[in-house]
Structure formats: C-alpha cells, structure tokens
C-alpha cells in the first residue's frame, strides 16, 4: 500500500499561481500581444517546474506521478488539438474560397446609419461565428467599421463596444473557436453539446446588447456612408461574390444540427470550401502559388499553401488586405503550444494536490446550485485578472471545478458553459489581459474607454448566474436528463 501524501495548504497551492501572475505581468509588459508567441509558454513551463520542486521536495510526490498526470492532461485535449489544426485549414479555405467575403459583402450592405451600431455588432457576430476568431474579426472588419463609424460621427467607445460585443459572441459559440473547443475539452463535454447548452445564456445576452445598440443608434445623427461602398466594391473586385458559396455554411449548419462528429463536420466543411476555391477563386489560388508552373500545378500548390501556411493577397486597401489574409494550420501552432504548456502546469498542480487544495476553498460556496455557478464565475474572472490569459484561465477553472460538479451531480456541460460565460467574454475587458491589450491596440481605443459599452461581455456572466438561480434547463442531482 502506498503512503498517503501530505496535501499542500491553500497558501502553498496558490504560490505557483502568484508566481505565474508575476511572470506573465512582466512578459506581457515586455512583449505585448507577442507574448502568446512563446513568452507565456515559457512562463507556464517555469511555473510547472516550481510545482514539481515543491511537490517533490516537501510533499513526497514522485516525478513519475507528475509525469503521468501531465500525460493524462495532454491525452485529454488531443482531440482538441487535432480540431484546432483542422480549424486553421478551414478558416483559410472559407476566406479564400469566398465564403467569408460573400457573407461580409452582403452583411455590410444592410447597414443603415440609424442602425449602424446594431448592424456593427451583428456583422461582427456573423463574421466571428464563421471564422471562429474574435481577434481576426476585430483586426479586419472591426477596423473598417471603426473608420466608418467615426466618419458618421459615432463615439469611438460605442463603436468599439459594438465590435467587441459581436466579435466575442462568435468567439464564444463558434465551433471553429479555440476557446469553445478548449472549454468543452477541459470539462470533458462534447463540443456541440457545449455549444447548444450555451445558447440558454448567450442568446439572451446578445439580444440585450442588440436592443441597447439599436436604441443608442437612433439617438445619433449620421451623414456619410461612402466608405461602406468602397469596402464592398473592394471585396467584389478581389473575389467572385456568389451566393453559391453560401452552401458551405448551410451544409456545415446541417451537419452540426444532425450532431455529426466535430472532426468530420469540420473536415467536410473544409473540403467544400476547397471546391469553392477551385471553382470560383482560381485566380487567387494561382496568385498564391506564384508563376512558373502549369495551371493544375498552380491550383494544387495554391490549395496546399492556403491550408497549411500564411497567405496575404494584395487588395484595394490595407484594411481589406488584412481582412483576406489567412494563417492556415501553421497559424494555430502558438495556440497548440500554449495549450500543451498549460496542460503541463495543470498536470503538475493536480499531481501535487494543489488544485484539490484550492478547490476546497470553494466547497463551502458550492452546496447549492446558484453558489456553485457563482463560485465558478468568480473564480474564472479572478483567474482572468490574475493570469492575464483566457486560455490559462479556462484550463485552470475547468480543472479546479470538474470534481466539484461531478460530486454534486451536475452535468459537465453546466461547467463548460459557466466557464465560457465567466472567462472568454470578460478577457477583453481587462487592460493587462492579452485580449484587452490586443483589442485596445488594434482599435486604437483604450480598454477602459470601450469597456462600458461591451454590454454582451459583462451581461453574459450575470446571465449565467441568473439562469442558475432560476434553474432553467439545469438537470438537478439524481434526476435524469429529459432533453
């Protein structure tokens, strides 16, 4: 019989978290948004080493136990890593296949000055759902909308708030989003089960935001919308805009509704988008491939480059050029690297008993449903503030509360939903968080200036608590799921 190990106190268990906070603070201060390219990963590995030293030196934990926990953690997210790579290929194929440009082309044209703010939020929501990336949405169509809104006389805080609200709606619910995949994977929840369950809190939150933006839009007098016409003209000039390419998102939606496996759905969607590239955007593929080869070779090379690596096709404006740039599977490697390093930290903290020690601090708040969800929201927000990174916060929140939810008889989808409600959407509201820092830099609007207008982002965690208090669609312990 193995000897029972001594469990670290909550104070000792929090030491690695505090060290991580300090390391991330200086790393993000020095590297900014580039911290995700390696700096944050090094911080995670250094903190992992600290956990191992504490566990092995003072609490009798063996290295084999730590290594086993790390391997188990990485195994648990292996499917998510595969999905992330497919998503990199899919997002590139959707862009250069004309799917996203067509959606933007028709979406932008529905904007009327009186409905600019609500349309701004809605367009960003659609684009982010299609791309799975709030960062890409904000850095591309968001920049264009900022210029249009300023030209029409809107306050920059309102414009940025509408953009961020819409962009993080898609980041939260899109099956292409890495945070959506990560939250479902960490909590052992099937991806589409996680997405469907989030709708009970996400749809009311975005509807509240859209109503507020609609009312606010009618209080402004606006003038020129010529920039909008220039933007749509640039898209039509660069791409073959056709409604046929919209069959791709339609088929993808059908597969999702029929609960087809995530990997199969994403693969089929990518393949259809590649067909659209070959049929409608052959000129762009040849441009990506370069000269000096036959037409068939150019098309084949163009597809390979698009799916695997970064592409940048010149357009009529710098904003449009940035919009249609893609990263492919290679662009997902920083996220994959970050997840692997975070899994190392989570495994080390688990093996050393630190996560268990920290979760026991929340036990007295988790006797009832509302208390459990509130504690999860508070923990997720705290970790977002402390670690300055949404990926790390999602992983730590999911790991800390997984056993508590299981012990109390609640479904894993409740934890995955609450984690996203608490972490994903609040990350851009924190000035020193990588998300807050990045969006403020891209939009040239300080985080604290747009924060009051990001209605979706701070209504979401409140909605999660409200729904928990009501108990709507939450399966109680010892009751069978009737859905």
Automatic annotation (TrEMBL):
The listed locations are: Cell membrane
Domain Na+/H+ antiporter NhaC-like C-terminal positions? 166-471
Give the residue spans that cross the bilayer: 12-31, 43-61, 81-108, 115-148, 197-218, 239-257, 263-286, 336-357, 369-388, 455-475
Keywords, comma-separated and alphabetical: Antiport, Cell membrane, Membrane, Transmembrane, Transmembrane helix, Transport
Q: Please give, as recorded in its UniProt entry, the membrane topology of this protein.
A: Multi-pass membrane protein
| One Pfam family per UniProt | Na_H_antiporter
**Which family is this protein grouped under?**
Belongs to the NhaC Na(+)/H(+) (TC 2.A.35) antiporter family.
What PANTHER family is this protein classified in? MALATE-2H(+)/NA(+)-LACTATE ANTIPORTER (PTHR33451), MALATE-2H(+)_NA(+)-LACTATE ANTIPORTER (PTHR33451:SF3)
How is this protein named in the record?
Answer: Sodium:proton antiporter
């Amino acid at each position: 019989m193995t000897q029972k190990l001594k469990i670290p106190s909550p104070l000792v268990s929090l030491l690695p978290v505090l060290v991580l906070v300090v390391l991330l603070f200086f790393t993000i201060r020095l590297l900014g948004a580039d911290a995700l390219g390696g700096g944050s990963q090094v911080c995670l590995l250094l903190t992992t080493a600290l956990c191992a030293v504490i566990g092995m030196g003072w609490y009798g934990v063996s290295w084999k136990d730590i290594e086993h926990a790390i391997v188990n953690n990485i195994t648990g997210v292996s499917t998510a890593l595969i999905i992330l790579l497919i998503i990199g290929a899919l997002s590139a194929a959707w862009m250069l296949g004309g799917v996203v440009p067509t959606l933007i082309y028709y979406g932008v044209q529905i904007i009327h000055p009186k409905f600019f703010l609500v349309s701004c939020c809605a367009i960003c929501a659609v684009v982010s759902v299609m791309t799975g990336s709030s960062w890409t949405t904000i850095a591309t169509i968001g920049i264009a909308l900022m210029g249009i809104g300023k030209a029409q006389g809107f306050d920059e805080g309102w414009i940025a708030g509408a953009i961020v609200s819409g962009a993080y709606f898609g980041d939260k619910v899109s099956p292409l989003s890495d945070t959506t995949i990560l939250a479902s994977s960490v909590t052992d929840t099937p991806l589409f089960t996680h997405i469907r369950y989030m709708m009970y809190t996400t749809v009311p939150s975005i509807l509240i935001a859209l109503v507020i933006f609609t009312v606010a839009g009618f209080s402004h007098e606006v003038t020129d919308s010529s920039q909008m016409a220039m933007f749509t003209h640039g898209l039509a000039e660069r791409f073959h805009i056709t409604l046929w390419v919209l069959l791709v998102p339609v088929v993808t939606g059908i597969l999702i509704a029929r609960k087809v496996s995530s990997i199969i759905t994403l693969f089929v969607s990518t393949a259809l988008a590649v067909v659209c590239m070959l049929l409608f955007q052959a000129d762009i593929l040849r441009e990506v491939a370069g000269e000096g080869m036959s037409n068939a070779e150019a098309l084949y090379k163009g597809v390979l480059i698009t799916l695997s690596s970064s592409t940048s096709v010149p357009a009529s404006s710098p904003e449009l050029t940035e919009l249609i740039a893609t990263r492919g599977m290679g662009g997902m490697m920083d996220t994959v690297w970050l997840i692997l390093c975070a899994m190392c930290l989570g495994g080390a903290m688990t093996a050393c008993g630190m996560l268990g020690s920290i979760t026991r601090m929340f036990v007295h708040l988790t006797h009832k449903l509302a208390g459990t969800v509130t504690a999860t929201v508070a923990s997720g927000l705290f970790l977002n503030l402390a670690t300055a990174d949404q990926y790390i916060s999602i992983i730590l929140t999911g790991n800390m509360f997984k056993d508590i939810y299981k012990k109390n008889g609640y479904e894993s989808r409740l934890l995955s939903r609450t984690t996203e409600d608490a972490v994903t959407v609040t990350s851009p509201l924190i000035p020193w968080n990588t998300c807050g820092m990045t969006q403020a830099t891209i939009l040239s609007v300080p985080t604290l200036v747009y924060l009051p207008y990001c209605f979706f982002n701070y209504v979401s965690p409140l909605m999660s608590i409200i729904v928990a208090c009501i108990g709507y669609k939450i399966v109680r312990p010892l009751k069978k799921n009737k859905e």
